[in-house]
Each structure stands twice: as structure tokens, then as C-alpha cells.
Amino acid sequence: MSHRAWVDTAIQRIEADFNRSADTHLIPLDLPGYPDITVYFKDESSHPTGSLKHRLARSLFLYALANGWLRPGRPVIEASSGSTAVSEAYFARLLGLPFIAVMPASTSPDKIAAIEFYGGRCHLVEQAGAINSESQRLAQETGGHFMDQFTYAERATDWRANNNIAESIFKQMAEEPSPIPAWIVCSPGTGGTSATLGRYVRYRRHDTRILCVDPETSTFFDYFASAQSGKPDASLTLPCGSRIEGIGRPRVEPSFIPSCVDTMLKVPDGLSLAAMRYVSKRLGRRVGGSTGTNFIGVLWLAQHMQAAGQGGSIVTILCDAGERYAHSYYNPDWYADQGMDCALDDASLAAMLSGEALSGLRVAGELV
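The chain above was modelled as a monomer; its predicted structure follows.
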């Protein structure tokens, strides 16, 4: 079979897999104390691989195939210890390609097992900061392809259409009381989702604005603030990664486009996890930590909208299910190890829910 014929078959397999899958759900959630504001969660945990990263992995594979970067029998390699690796392993198996996830040696056994379930192999490195260079080395050594999610996330996704997350949200909102959301709230991991959302609302000429919520240990907020001042500093780095898995980065990633975002909020980790626990109780099932970070952004916006006499809808993302975090966010011993006071954080969240403004949230950008 020629390479072009193999690419045709590979794309057909991915498209057939997409046709077999229903769209993810849009779940309304009443927000006590805010009767004129409706909140919706875009539930990305219902993808076959259980997270928002399923969309990214599909886009990365289609982009790599269309560019002629993938070859039969040669491995696909990604620097990831989380949901992206799980989803890429799924698509690699679909195409009959070997998959290698390069990850820190400290990665939890639960995540390693999830990647191996889809036929992937985990390549562990001692230094977390070396996963990109090790991925590049493996690609050269094996003749494989390094997907490099943090570089290609914003360009691999077709932000105009192709059922990207933004198009899906607006289609599902069409019959709701406020079909054009006042805000969409997301959190940056690669930056690809915020870029897709920001581009789509401008392209479709919607009034919707994008709030990006960053966890405690991440460079994205400060990079955005520097861009707002007219002096973007892409050299920002931090010595460690985020405790809110899947979002936040210790360096500025190429796929994060600050001009696609209207406002950013910096959220303490303890508050994110208190919100995670609250949303889990309200929905009757566990959600991940990044969903909690997103919900703090929703609450903060609801407070400001109500104070300004505004109503309407806010859409945010339920990124993944909480079952992946049984060893951490749903384990009391983990909080003790982290020195986090759940009772204090739950009280802070309760104050926000009652309408009290919370100190400790950093804001950059505009609300109008």
C-alpha cells in the first residue's frame, strides 16, 4: 500500500470512529443566589477516553496525517503523563501504530495503567523537565513522530467548524433561554481550547467573551498580564508544575494565544479543589480538579454580572471525571501531605456562593 493510500485509510478510520460517537452533553446547573444567570457544564468526560483531551488527540492525529508526518509501523510519541497520552494511545491503537508516552518517573500507577490499557507504552524519565527533549530523541531514534501537543494544539484544531468544542457549545445552546453565552470559562493546559473558543466567537461575530482561569502554579496568567501591558514575556518559568492536573504549565507554551482571551483569573489550588468537591456533590458524581478551577471562574463572573444588573448564560467545561484522581483529590491523606485545610477552603467557597467577594484572586484583562 502506498503512503497516500495508508493516510486515506487512517483518516477514514478516525472519521468512522467520530461518526460512532455521540456529542458530549451540556448540563445545566442552578446557581443559588443568582436567579438571572444560568450555568452550563460542557461534559467532556463522556468522550470514549473520558476527557476533553479526546478532541485534542483527534485533531493532532488528523493534522499529522494531513501533513504526512505519520508512517505505518512507526511509533507516535508524546510528552504527557495525563489525559492527552491516554487519548493519543486510543487513536494510535485505532490506526495500528505503536504509542510511547514520555512521562516523569513519579507518574501515578493509575495513569500508567490507563495508557497501557489502550496499548501504549510508558517511557519514564527522572527529571520532569526532560520529557520534551527525551521525546524528540526517541522520535529520531525510532523514526517515529513526536506529536508535541504544546506546540500544535492551537493550530491542529479547525476553529472554524468540524464540530470543535465551540461549535458544539453554540449548537447545543440554540434552544436555551439565553442561547449566546455572555461568557465561556476554560482553563489552559496547552492553550488550544482557549484559542479555539476565542477565535470561533470572533469568527461567528458573537458577543461572547472568554475567561481563562489559571491554577496557582502556572505561567499563563503572568504571561497574559505582561501581554496586556504591551510587553509580553514568553520567557517566564517556574521550578515546578501545577497541582491541578491537566492545566497550568511551568513555562509559557506556544499554543497559548493571549489575544484570544478577554480576561484571566488566578485561582488558589485549595479553592479549586473545594469547588471540585461542591460540583461533585451537585452533579452526584466525581469530577476532576480542573472543573473546580473553572467553577471558581463561573462564580466570580456571576458575582460581577449580578452586581452590574446583568443576566444571561455562562458555559464552562467539565474536563474529566474524578475517578482518575482517587489517589489524590479524593484521598484525605493527599491533602494532609500537601498541607491543605479542606475545612477552611470549603468555608471560603461557601462565602463565595453566598455572594461574598473573595480576596486572593488575581485578575487581568477586561470585564466589558
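The two ends are 56 Å apart (CA to CA).
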